[in-house]
Design brief:
By secondary structure, the chain is α+β, with helices and mostly antiparallel strands. It contains 13 helices and 7 strands. It folds into 2 domains: 247 residues, Butyryl-CoA Dehydrogenase, subunit A, domain 3 (Up-down Bundle), CATH 1.20.140; 126 residues, Beta Barrel (Butyryl-CoA Dehydrogenase, subunit A, domain 2), CATH 2.40.110. The structure holds flavin-adenine dinucleotide.
């Protein structure tokens, strides 16, 4: 039976995250939006101290953790991504690494100085079509090292990962002719010669978070840094071992992106409701729809869309916490939340008029921040394609 009930500890954690979002994060939100590449040092330090007390920063897996992320992003989605964390790199290690690799690579995130992890899949010629990646990993049998060459772009937290004692999980092909079967994840640790950050993007939203390009130029890493098996199984199926690991990572991260989207969406909804209340315009629930004003209908439609996306997110997260296969549900949650956040934030700006458009308030920023959730970790279209394939039982080749 599906059960979204929270333990008292989880509820306390969510309440604390909300309080922090309101008192610590919101007051600095505009500043770091307007000072894109400036590091929020005090905030990072405060988050690091908090993690040290709470036992580390490795990605949480349950309903409680996803609701905490939602509250963090209700505060600021960009700053949430700046908090020290193993990030998507940690998710990839959990999805693909052996127990020994998980222990070895993830333990650093609870020790010493603040650290970050990231994941690099996207390349100039490979975005939605991940199988088109050109970055290569060749085994040097004399030294027993992998030699990586290629360019990875748009890596969330890429710069912080390489500048701290963190890591980036890089997807590379061990055999370009093998397509998806040749794709493998490799851990590139910060400070490895041949791995350099080339540039950091200037962005529309989540501007507190760094999005970087990583150049791999004869970058040598130990043999053990491959996650999973190096074997290339040329079976005629889209679910080859290497690619399956990529999908397993996304099954973990897509519900989290959905939670992030919902945090931004709820921030906008709350702003609309509070503003209307201040203006003496209450939302009259329980009336038949023909008796509602246009603004009441709009708010209720936004709330319904939010709750539908929230329920999908909770289901996908709960299934993940129970180690149940959740690919369909993760893509559903991500696709729906991406659409909902873009719609809610834009609608809220429209409804609030000048208050929505002015930089005096954060609403216009949330509209910019929200859109990314419909782009990274598989665009809305790609996630809907996955949902359609799974429901209609089509293969990747049959439904492109
Ligand atoms: C701020 C930011 C952070 C990011 N962080 C990371 C990260 O940490 N790691 C990482 O690896 N990548 C990251 N990305 C990259 C992101 O995952 C890609 O941008 C995304 O996968 C889309 O790829 P693309 O940009 O090449 O667009 P394309 O794949 O070229 O798509 C362009 C448009 O075409 C649509 N489209 C493509 N194929 C189809 C299809 N078959 N059917 C219907 N529509 C289709 C897409 O939905 C999209 O609307 C990030 C991007 C941004 C902007």
């Amino acid at each position: 039976m599906i059960d979204f009930e929270l333990t008292p500890e989880e509820q306390a954690m969510i309440d604390a995250a909300h309080k922090e979002a309101l008192e610590v994060v919101r007051p600095i939100s505009r500043y770091y939006d307007e000072h894109e590449h400036e590091s929020p040092k005090d905030f990072i330090e405060q988050q690091w101290q908090q993690q040290a007390q709470g036992g580390g920063s490795i990605l949480g897996l349950g309903v409680g953790a996803s609701l905490r992320i939602l509250e963090n992003c209700w505060g600021d989605a960009g700053l949430m991504l700046v908090a020290p964390s193993s990030g998507l790199g940690g998710a990839a290690i959990l999805a693909s690494g052996t127990q020994e690799q998980q222990a070895n690579f993830l333990k650093r995130f609870g020790e010493g100085e603040p650290k970050w992890g990231a994941m690099a899949m996207t390349e100039p010629g490979a975005g939605s079509d991940t199988a088109a990646i050109q970055t290569t990993a060749v085994l040097d049998t004399e030294t027993n090292e992998w030699v990586l060459n290629g360019e990875k772009i748009f890596i969330t937290g890429g710069q912080r990962s390489m500048e701290s004692d963190g890591l980036v999980v890089v997807w590379a092909t061990v055999d370009r002719t093998a397509g998806r079967a040749g794709m493998k994840p490799f851990v590139v640790e910060a400070g490895t010669p041949g791995a350099t950050i080339d540039k950091v993007e200037n962005k529309l939203g989540i501007r507190a978070s760094d999005t970087a390009t990583l150049i791999l130029d004869n970058c040598r890493i130990p043999y053990e840094n491959i996650l999973g098996s190096p074997e290339v199984r040329r079976v005629d199926s889209s679910q080859t071992a290497g690619f399956k690991r990529a999908m397993a990572t996304f099954d973990m991260t897509r519900p989290i992106i959905a939670a992030m989207a919902l945090g931004v969406g709820r921030a906008s909804l709350d702003f609309v409701r509070e503003t209307l209340e201040k203006e003496g315009i209450p939302i009259r629930y329980g009336l038949p729809s023909h008796k509602l004003t246009a603004i009441e209908r709009d708010v209720m439609e936004m709330e319904a869309a939010y709750k539908a996306a929230l329920t999908l997110m909770l289901r996908a997260t709960w299934m993940m916490s129970q180690f149940q296969p959740n690919s369909l549900e993760a893509s559903m949650a991500k696709a729906k939340a991406g659409i909902v956040v873009a719609w809610i934030t834009q609608k809220a700006v429209e409804m609030m008029g000048p208050l929505g458009y002015s930089r005096k308030y954060l609403l216009e920023k949330w509209m910019r921040d929200g859109k990314i959730n419909d782009i990274f970790e598989g665009t809305g279209q790609i996630n809907m394609l996955i949902v359609a394939r799974r429901i209609l039982d089509y293969t990747r080749e049959e439904l492109k």
